[in-house]
Here is the input.
Amino acid sequence: MRALSRVDQYQPGTRLDSWMYRIAQNLWLDRMRAKKVRGVQVDVEAVEALAGSNGRTVVESRLTLDAVGAAMALLPEEQRVLIGLVCIDGYSYKEAADITGTPIGTIMSRLARARRELHAHLEGDARETVVRPQASKPGSGA
Here is the structure.
């Protein structure tokens, strides 16, 4: 393309292949100089295909993990233990019942309550938090 666009610069009597070689060489030298000045050019689509962590996803995941940790700290110990056994460690309800020495029905109800409270803490909705009944004091009339 370059040779055709500059055919008027060709001098009759010179070798055509030498003239075209010099054009190709100059194009190559120009590209090398440009690469040195501009740096390596990368295709945007190629960059998207590179393996690596998305910084936004990493930060959001860490913030979520911190929020879950803080919400779990608000749960009673028995609920934290069950969340840890079943949801984090992957034990079945039966295995969690065997480990804690608690009936499986109790495990299921405590875990359901723990999940509701954890969700309520994470969503910031105190209305959803399960209210535990207070033991009545003797002589209080309740």
